[in-house]
Q: What sequence folds into this?
């Protein structure tokens, strides 16, 4: 019966599509600067062999009510067959939508290797060590995927894995020297839902929970928003809903703080989604460098209200040296769960520490170098077999044969056609610390 209903509606919609080609909706023009023009059957006195393809493009671009038709199709598939017409959107229970790019975590199909787990933890520990050495407060946090917190609303066809990468790493993260803020634990200890139904992201209430947990891990004295009254206008249009139902005028309730913020943006500012944002606040304390992703949009006003000055950035790779050059006393690194691997996919920038290996052994490797401001970047891949926790060092020899060893992080830096591997290494070394006519080699910590 459902199939028959769908076919009937599909037939009617098809008729509308066929006739609407010649009556394009004016609103379509606003979606694209230049629409595809009706193709010519003959061009330059010759038959246009591309006419069929060009006609297909014309129809696709000029169909009136195109977004509405897409939305009707999505609604029918959702209602009649409990399925999604948009590959990036998963339709869950009670109208909750999920981002399909989180499935790898949910199903456990993209698990870290044991070496990647070591690289992930070691990289963060070295970032913490760098900040400690330079008297900079540091906090790292992972914002859980929506289906990590509300998996009961996922469709039954998706069977949650026994553990995700985040769940595998949580015990070790909580036992490292890293100031790790466990937001998964924080949200799971609360009743209620703190993410939008039709959006990938958290609500303002959810952002406040994240903010309070992050700031309290660094400072005892900070601006708190947990008791500030809130308004709930029905004005939020979620990103997942936008993808699934582009032609529907839908909204859901959002939470907005009833608060007069005193911070100001500095320089060019278009939206909270800008790559780089600077703010100042005469009432704030301390100075912040924050690396963030799209979840940082809702955090922006909260963070800006707390700090005297703030540099808020989505830039990749994470560059901790900005904290020194920009005189920041606090660094926060926020990343969403589905992008955790970016910690080791993009080599973070900071000066490597010197180390004294107990037993350095040779290995086979590829090595590349680049200059980065006042630093030289050594990176590449070890081709010899590595132990799970085996350290990789950059060995610098002077003309007299004396050696200095530098720590590396197990993070990837793309070089031409070199593919990612969990045996990659990266180290940034101060150029002024290197002797004349030095030689470089890569060695391993012996077992």
A:
């Amino acid at each position: 019966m459902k199939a028959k209903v769908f076919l009937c509606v599909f037939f009617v919609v098809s008729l509308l599509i066929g006739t609407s080609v010649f009556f394009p909706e004016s609103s379509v023009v606003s979606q694209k600067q230049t629409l595809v023009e009706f193709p010519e059957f003959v061009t330059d006195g010759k038959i246009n062999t591309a006419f069929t393809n060009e006609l297909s493009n014309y129809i696709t671009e000029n169909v009136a009510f195109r977004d509405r038709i897409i939305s009707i199709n999505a609604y029918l598939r959702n209602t009649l067959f409990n399925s999604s017409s948009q590959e990036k959107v998963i339709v869950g229970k009670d109208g909750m939508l999920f981002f399909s790019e989180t499935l790898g975590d949910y199903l456990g199909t993209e698990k870290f290797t044991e070496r990647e787990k070591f690289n992930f933890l070691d990289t963060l520990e070295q970032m913490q060590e760098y900040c400690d050495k330079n008297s900079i407060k540091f906090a790292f946090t992972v914002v859980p995927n929506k289906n990590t917190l509300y998996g009961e609303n996922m469709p039954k066809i998706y069977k949650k894995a026994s553990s995700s990468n985040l769940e595998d790493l949580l015990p070790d993260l909580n036992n490292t020297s890293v100031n790790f803020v466990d937001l998964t634990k924080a949200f799971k200890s609360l009743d209620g839902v703190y993410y939008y139904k039709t959006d990938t992201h958290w609500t303002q209430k959810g952002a406040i929970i994240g903010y309070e947990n992050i700031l309290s891990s660094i400072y005892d004295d900070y601006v708190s928003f947990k008791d500030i009254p809130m308004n709930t206008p029905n004005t939020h249009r979620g990103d997942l809903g936008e993808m699934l139902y582009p032609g529907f005028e839908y909204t859901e309730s959002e939470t907005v703080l009833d608060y007069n913020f005193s911070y100001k943006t500095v320089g060019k500012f278009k939206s909270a989604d800008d790559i780089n944002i600077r703010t100042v606040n005469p009432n704030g304390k301390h100075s912040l460098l924050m690396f963030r992703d799209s979840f940082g949009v809702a955090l922006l006003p909260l963070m800006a209200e707390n700090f005297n000055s703030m540099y808020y950035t989505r830039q990749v790779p994470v560059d901790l040296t900005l904290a020194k050059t920009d005189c920041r006393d606090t660094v926060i690194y926020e990343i969403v769960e589905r992008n955790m691997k970016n910690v080791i996919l993009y080599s973070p920038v900071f000066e490597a520490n010197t180390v004294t290996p107990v037993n350095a052994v040779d290995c086979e490797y590829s090595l590349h170098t680049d200059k980065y401001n006042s630093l030289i970047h050594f990176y590449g891949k070890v081709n010899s077999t590595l132990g799970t926790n085996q350290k990789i060092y950059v060995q610098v020899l002077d003309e007299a044969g004396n050696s200095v060893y530098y720590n590396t992080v197990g993070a990837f830096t793309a070089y031409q056609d070199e593919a990612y591997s969990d045996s990659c290494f990266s180290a940034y070394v101060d150029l002024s610390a290197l002797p004349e006519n030095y030689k470089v080699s890569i060695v391993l910590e012996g077992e």
Remarks:
- Residues 289 and 326 are 9 Å apart (CA to CA).
- The mean pLDDT is 86.
